[in-house]
Amino acid sequence: MVNKIYERGSLQNVEDGFTFCFKNTMTPLKISGMREIKISVDDVAYPTENIQLILDDQVLTFSSESLSKPVAFSKNSRLHINLAGNPLPDGKHVIKISFITKEYGGVSLKVSDAVGACEKVTFLQRIKNRSSQKRVQSRFKEIIEGGTLGGVPLDPDFSRVEKALRLEEPDRVPLFEAEIEIPVQEWFLGRDINNAEDEIEFYIKAGYDFIPIVPPFFTPRLMRTASGDERTWIKESEGIIKTVEDVRKFPWPNPDEVDFSSFHDIAKILPPKMKIVGLLSPAAIFGNTSQSMGLVNFSYALYDNVEVVDTLFEIIGTSYLKIAKRLATMPKLGAVLMSDDLAHAGGCLVSPKVYRKYVFPWYRQIGEVFEKARVPFIFHSDGRLWDVLDDLVGCGIKGIHPIEPQAMDIVEVKRRYGNKLCIFGNVDLDYTLTRGSVDEVIGVVKQKIKDLGPGGGYVLSASNSIPEYVKPENFKAMVEATKKHGKYPINL
Question: Residue 119: pLDDT above 50?
Answer without folding.
Answer: no
